[in-house]
Amino acid sequence: MLQCINRIKGGYMLKQVIVVEGKSDIQRIAQAVDADCIATEGFTLRRGVIDMIRVAYEKRGIIILTDPDTAGERIRRVLTKKFPNAQHALCLVTKRLQMMILA
User: What is the pLDDT of residues 19-60, one digit of tens each?
Assistant: First the structure.
């Protein structure tokens, strides 16, 4: 269940921290919702990134939002093992929809 913690700019900030793959994903999230994000910066999942995710998981909860490609699914599998109570979100964009958005 999504929860909000702070009222800001006429809206609410998401309580959970969203874990995404890259910095461009953080920019896209910011266009849609007020939320703190952590970028994994690829599927190597460095120790420092895992530590930041762990703190967020324990204090606020996390939402794993990755692409439905090989790298995204690998990240999701690793994080799900480490953080079994994490929530999940998936972004699906078909090529046709992407072409319509870019047009």
Answer: 999 998 898 888 888 899 999 998 889 999 999 999 999 999
Q: Find all residues with CB under 8 Å of 29, minimum gap 6, and list them.
A: 18, 20, 35, 37, 65
Beta strands in 1-103 (DSSP E): 4-8, 11-14, 17-20, 37-39, 62-66, 87-90
Query: Coil, strand, or helix at residue 85?
Result: coil
Cα(20)–Cα(66) distance, integer angstroms: 6
Token readout for 49 is 């990134």
pLDDT at 6: 52
Amino acid identity, position 96: R
Burial of residue 39, with CB atoms counted within 10 A of its CB: 0-12 exposed, 13-18 middle, 19 or more buried: middle
